């Protein structure tokens, strides 16, 4: 075989290795080190609770989150994380590590009651047990510890004692038990407002569907721009990337994704990368295999320079305009 043909075959192999895998089922694994699993436990528990509440399942009154629901979702999240042959897997797990939006804490409950009550005075001073049998029983049963105390002005008829659990719980169901105690005015989750990222799940007999969302542009008040990635995870832990979308309805509606042609070259590169397909300036980030951002910036010339110093190896390039978002695997020669 001539040297020219060898170079052609090598280039073909590289292109096959970095192109988008769309509509193909690739093998993956639902196993990962504890350091990875710990990143997705909150996501799995939160999605399990959403599912239980959305479908009004009998477990909606259970204080402890049923493992049968959370474990299957956790496996799916880990499978997407491990699907390294799919570039979009790296996009949603490493370059822009996407998680469920924490609209409320899974391990914090706030209890409102008259501050003149003896047990509230104990909590104000961080003392547990409080001397109130029913309060102390719930604290012991669900391994709650003192978090902080909110001392409100006199015209408000209650203060708030905040307690934290050692594990994630169905806080809404636990709040019901506290509110059944006559001394308690009300009990609530610790909630947050905002936007920026999220994950949605739906489960069928054949697979678990996960839709990852990333937003940018004034996200504290609701993101101006959004991008969605849809995956199907089968029960043998194989993964199918179904497409990326500009709106959630398209992502959930099984419509064809935006197929705007965007490409990068040369790949492998040495000191310059050109980006075809954009007519406006774009933001870019280059990340290492571990997800560390090594270069970021804005380009208005359809090219990315100042990259000759990068060490040889595999990187992830993300390019983004106001309403488009793409990720590529790139190789530094």
Task: Explain how this protein is built.
The chain has 333 residues and is α+β, with helices and mostly antiparallel strands. It folds into three domains: 130 residues, no CATH class; 88 residues, ACT domain (Alpha-Beta Plaits, 2-Layer Sandwich), CATH 3.30.70.260; 70 residues, Immunoglobulin-like (Sandwich). The chain is 28% helix and 32% strand. The strands form four sheets. It has a five-stranded antiparallel beta sheet. A four-stranded antiparallel beta sheet has the order 3-4-2-5. The N terminus is likely disordered.
Summary?
This protein has 333 residues and is α+β, with helices and mostly antiparallel strands. The protein contains eight helices and 16 strands. The longest helix is centred in the N-terminal third of the chain and has 21 residues.
What labels describe this entry?
Alpha-Beta Plaits; single chain; alpha+beta; disordered N terminus; Immunoglobulin-like; 3 domains; about 325 residues; elongated; 8 helices
